[in-house]
């Protein structure tokens, strides 16, 4: 697994689906990008929005976004992780998309990561360190009481050891990384003993993602991007170096974090230890063709991204 935890607090990226009307010359896809610029020891974090042509956009919600941000399926809520200044714990929070001051803390742990919504919007999966197994584990949170406006504290339910969870579109399965083996598995949420490997014989795998129609799973192994049928068959090597990939909501494009292998202007060293280098966000067709670079700076490092619904694209 890439050492993204070293710098996740410094950088993050959020991809927005724009599927917007082409008024004001705004493109079809848009991104909100948070990045560490310059030498990270003395650099700074920036958050900005661009469309798929790299044109800068101004979005109302930029100032309130946390890390690992993801919008609910109906676009009304935002889940993210943030640091609580009282105890310095990194935990999961819910924020109403239209009322940014309505924020609810969901977890109380030393570190909770990668929150992701169930397709029906009633649950959130995330991973955190499990004292019993002494490894990362995936948990489920039923947040329906919070969404109804009740004063409640949902209790996490243990699912399975692992991390990097992502729900299947039908809500019955979860794809995840087995942290002890660095392999990608699919598990039945209602019967966690039923699981199977989809990364076949590959190693150093992470960041699995379902396609919107549920037929494919994308992931990265040893810095190379792959997809496979959701039953684990027909593995496809895109032959493209990347750090993370995800389908657009309409399933027609894939966005990913690319390196100097795609653009020699990238790869600038941004930390004193020489472990963090500059990257950029790219978009390609789902067969790996028509690759387009979206972010333009050569001195920033991108952390992650997610797509959001069209109704969140309110500009200033």
* pLDDT averaged over residues: 83
Text of the CATH class:
Mainly Beta
Extract low-pLDDT stretches.
1-26
Note the main sheet. 5 strands, antiparallel
Order of helices and strands: EEEEEEEEEEEHEEEEEEEEEEEEEE
Word description of this protein:
This protein is mostly beta strands. It has a single domain, classed as Neuraminidase (6 Propeller). Helices cover 1% and strands 44% of the residues. The strands form 6 sheets. Strands 1, 2, 3, 4 and 25 form a 5-stranded antiparallel beta sheet that branches. β7 and β8 form a beta hairpin. 42% of the residues are buried. The N terminus is likely disordered.
Please describe the topology of this protein.
Blueprint: E1 12-16, E2 30-37, E3 44-51, E4 56-57, E5 67-71, E6 77-83, E7 90-96, E8 103-105, E9 112-117, E10 123-130, E11 135-142, H1 144-147, E12 157-161, E13 163-167, E14 173-178, E15 183-188, E16 191-197, E17 205-210, E18 216-221, E19 224-229, E20 236-241, E21 245-247, E22 253-258, E23 280-285, E24 292-293, E25 300-302
Antiparallel strand pairs: 1-2, 2-3, 2-25, 3-4, 5-6, 6-7, 7-8, 9-10, 10-11, 11-12, 13-14, 14-15, 15-16, 17-18, 18-19, 19-20, 21-22, 22-23, 23-24
């Amino acid at each position: 697994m890439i050492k993204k935890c070293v710098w996740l607090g410094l950088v993050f990226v959020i991809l927005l689906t724009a599927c917007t009307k082409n008024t004001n010359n705004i493109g079809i896809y848009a991104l909100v990008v948070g990045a560490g610029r310059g030498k990270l020891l003395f650099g700074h974090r920036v958050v900005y929005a661009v469309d798929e042509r790299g044109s800068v956009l101004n979005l109302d919600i930029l100032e309130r976004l946390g890390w690992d941000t993801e919008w609910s399926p109906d676009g009304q809520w935002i889940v993210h992780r943030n640091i609580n200044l009282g105890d310095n714990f990194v935990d999961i929070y819910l924020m109403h998309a239209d009322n940014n001051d309505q924020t609810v803390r969901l977890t109380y742990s030393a570190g909770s990561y990668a929150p992701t919504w169930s397709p029906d919007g009633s649950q959130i999966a995330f991973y955190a360190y499990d004292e019993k197994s002494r490894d990362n584990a995936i948990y489920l949170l039923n947040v329906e009481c919070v969404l109804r406006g009740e004063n409640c504290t949902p209790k996490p339910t243990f699912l399975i050891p692992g991390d990097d969870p992502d729900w299947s579109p039908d809500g019955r399965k979860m794809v995840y990384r087995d942290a002890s083996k660095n392999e990608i598995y699919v598990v039945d949420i209602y019967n966690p003993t039923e699981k199977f490997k989809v990364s076949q014989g590959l190693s150093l795998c992470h960041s699995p993602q379902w396609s919107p129609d549920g037929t494919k799973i994308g992931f990265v192994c040893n810095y190379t991007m792959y997809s496979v049928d959701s039953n684990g068959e027909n593995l496809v090597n895109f032959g493209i170096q990347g750090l993370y990939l995800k389908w657009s909501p309409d399933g027609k494009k894939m966005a990913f974090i690319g390196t100097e292998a795609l653009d020699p202007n990238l790869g600038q060293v941004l930390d004193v230890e020489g472990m963090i280098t500059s990257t950029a966000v790219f978009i390609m067709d789902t067969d790996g063709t028509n690759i387009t670079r979206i972010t333009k700076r050569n001195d920033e490092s991108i952390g992650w991204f997610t797509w959001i619904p069209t109704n969140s694209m309110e500009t200033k």
